[in-house]
Amino acid sequence: MRDKIEIVQGDITKVTVDAIVNAANSSLLGGGGVDGAIHRAAGPELLAECRTLGGCPTGEAKITGGYRLPAQHVIHTVGPVWHGGGRGEAEQLRSCYRNCFRLAHENGLTSIAFPAISTGVYGYPKRPACRIALEEAKAALASCPELRKIIFTAFSAEDADIYRETMQEVVA
Ligand code: AR6
């Protein structure tokens, strides 16, 4: 199982996989952070397709083409804004990962790359967010044999260390 999970430090827009995940907002019409980077790299056709989707509630996900990205698809998900942990943030974040894996499965995708959803502007603490990401990756690999590769992109060396440490604890 461990050989199917990879931690990569760097820019998710450069990763060649069937789908990269975007940490979007509920408008799906772009923003800062990884969302801005993905829209810049994919080109205006991505925004045009996103306009047809009618937004996306927190915890859910929608799929589009990847346009000028090396990835064939973008799965847009909306993470929770961190309010201290008492407003269902953990379940919402878990739901983001589950819905991304569900869409990957429904679309016959075998490789997927994630950013650390909600851990930037939305303020979710990195370690617990990382644990949820890895727990859901483990569950997806157990139930989807066609899933070949799950990549977690860490934007900083510090974030990559958090993924590696958490991986020791979560994934056998
Ligand atoms: N590649 C990989 N990871 C990145 C990149 C990149 N190019 N750029 C940033 N990160 P954030 P959120 C990391 O703020 O917290 C947007 O405006 C970053 O270091 O992008 O879910 C949306 O439109 C952090 O670890 O997303 C929403 O309004 C992680 O990606 C809001 O921000 C997520 O940070 C969503 O906030």
UniProtKB/TrEMBL annotation:
Gene Ontology molecular function: any one: O-acetyl-ADP-ribose deacetylase activity
CDD domains xrefs: Macro_OAADPr_deacetylase (cd02908)
SMART domains the record matches: A1pp (SM00506)
A Pfam family matched in the record: Macro
InterPro entries assigned: Macro_dom, Macro_dom-like
Domain named Macro: residues: 1-171
PANTHER family recorded: GANGLIOSIDE INDUCED DIFFERENTIATION ASSOCIATED PROTEIN 2-RELATED, MACRO DOMAIN-CONTAINING PROTEIN
Descriptive protein name: O-acetyl-ADP-ribose deacetylase
Gene giving rise to this polypeptide: ymdB
